[in-house]
Specification:
8-stranded mixed sheet, 15 helices
């Protein structure tokens, strides 16, 4: 104890600043609202001069929002790596890609007034925010050094709507008049009005009652059986919300020949046929378009066994890019993590650094 006493006394004489020198100062945080879209900007004390515009994923309509806007999970890892992070809550909820692209561009310009020494700006998005990232790079390439789409729904609106419709009509074919669900099936307006938990529970119960059909559907949709009910309920939620946003059903399946459903002849003969509306189809074709014509580098990365963005969806945008002659701008990283958007903070930063390398 006597040997420790001089050391204790010496520490007691140190100024407080020296004792806490290893603790970095907190980031500077600004927040506000731009045309109905809450936003926040976090700038670390040791800022590198690089800015990340962070686009969040799908938020169901009606989910309460925090005021001021809360930071996304990956924000701290980006701040620790020296990046300033700007993010918008978007001016609308749901499949808000079109609104989000405009909101993020408006915020980017606002941030450039707040930060006078931005060296480079990157766009980084998760899930639906991945589509926001891709669309932003296509429409506003002058604003970005590049982009990163993680677990991204990198599909044009008409392709996405077609995938959602396939899920719903296939469920209704294999599980007609399922107990706990509307008699008209998942495509009915009554299903669109159900609370999400009630919808999920009805789907899960139907799958459990007919395991052979559930296994067949899981194989065709490329979703693990234990994640199937969640994937189907999400697809129903998004398609109904998208139809409401678009002013009508955004896709049809008249004349579509389905395959991969075991007895395809019986499936095509018995599956429900839907006519898309002109307003709905115009909306997804124009407002949610992706062309693949990249002018800036884009890094994409997925997780293993993602039940939301399954393998066939992951190949859509690379094919568009190849047809547009922009393959040199697209860089796909190997899958990491598990599930949907299962990235660690370090993996998010690594993906961003990979974009910087190009």
């Amino acid at each position: 104890m006597r040997a420790l006493l001089p050391l204790i006394l010496a520490i007691g004489l140190l100024p407080t600043s020296a004792l806490y020198a290893a603790t970095p100062p907190p980031p500077r945080t600004l927040s506000g609202e731009l045309q109905g879209a809450p936003w926040r900007l976090d700038v670390p004390a040791q800022w590198s001069g690089e800015l990340v515009m962070l686009a969040h994923g799908y938020e169901p309509v009606g989910v309460p929002r925090e005021t001021p806007m809360a930071a996304a999970d990956s924000t701290q890892a980006l701040l620790d790596a020296g990046y300033a992070v700007a993010q918008s809550a978007y001016s609308s909820q749901g499949w808000a890609v079109a609104d989000a692209v405009a909101d993020m561009e408006r915020l980017r310009q606002h941030v450039l007034d707040e930060l006078t020494h931005v060296r480079r700006t990157w766009m980084l998005g998760f899930s639906m925010g991945g589509a926001v990232t891709v669309a932003s790079l296509e429409r506003h390439p002058q604003g970005y050094a590049g982009g990163i789409s993680l677990c991204g729904a990198n599909l044009p609106g008409d392709v996405l709507a077609g995938e959602l419709l396939t899920t719903l009509v296939a469920f209704d074919y294999f599980f007609p008049k399922a107990e706990g669900l509307p008699a008209g099936g998942l495509l009915s307006s009554e299903a669109g009005a159900l609370p999400q938990m009630a919808l999920y529970q009805g789907i899960a119960a139907a799958l459990a009652r007919r395991p052979a059909q559930a296994a067949q559907l899981a194989t065709r949709l490329q979703v693990a059986p234990d994640a199937l009910a969640g994937a189907i309920s999400l697809h129903a939620l998004v398609l109904h919300e998208l139809a409401q946003r678009a002013g009508g059903m955004p896709v049809g399946n008249i004349g579509i020949v389905y395959s991969g459903f075991s007895d395809d002849a019986a499936f095509n003969a018995g599956v429900q046929r839907v006519q898309g509306t002109a307003a709905g189809q115009t909306y997804v074709r124009d407002q949610l378009a992706l062309k693949g014509a990249l002018q800036r580098p884009l890094v994409i990365q997925f997780n293993h066994d993602d039940p939301s963005i399954v393998p066939r969806m992951q190949t859509v945008y690379p094919q568009l890019v190849a047809r547009a002659g922009s393959a040199s701008k697209l860089h796909a990283l190997p899958p990491v993590g598990e599930g949907h958007c299962g990235f660690s903070g370090a993996q998010v930063v690594d993906a961003l650094k990979a974009a910087s390398a190009h």
